[in-house]
Hints:
The chain is mainly α. The chain has helices at about 5-25, 30-55, 60-80, 90-110, 120-145, 155-185, 190-195. The mean pLDDT is about 90.
Amino acid sequence: MNLPNKLTVIRIVLAPLFLLLTLVEFPFHNLAAGLVFGAAALTDMFDGKIARSRGLITNLGKFLDPLADKMLTTAAFLSFLATGHLDVWALMVVLTREFMVTSVRLVAAKDGTVIAANFWGKLKTVMQFVAILFELAALEFATWQTGLLAGAALPAAVFDIPLVIGYVLLWISVVSTAVSGVQYVWVNRKFFKDAK
């Protein structure tokens, strides 16, 4: 297994650890989760760059990379849903997109074609990563109202506004997810025309 694929496997391993950190409450657990998520996101940036620069692009990598991304972002969306910081409809849109894209990949694979992520898929992933990291930071900061900054007597809005911004960013990433899914299916519709 080459280095880019090893980095991708690390991201796959970090996804359940990240989910655990978001769901188990302890001091600074959102900060810890954010650091793990950030480290995993960095592996996504580096595995692609290394694979392209060294000519190490493989079919395994084309398969594992989007799987790792989906595991990581789905873990985040599930944790936000479980803690009441994401609407169930947002998760439904994200999962529907992922099932659509996976279906296209399965049909293409029948003919021996492996479809790599395109620009829209990568943009969607970046937008999701940014929204998730912001939301984790906002959640961590919100805990400081009764923790680190309890004696500062700051208005509640100081802690609430970042949560609202994070919620909006999550929905923007959901919309970009839907757009990228529709674009992906449209571009690869030829695989369905010939499918029997």
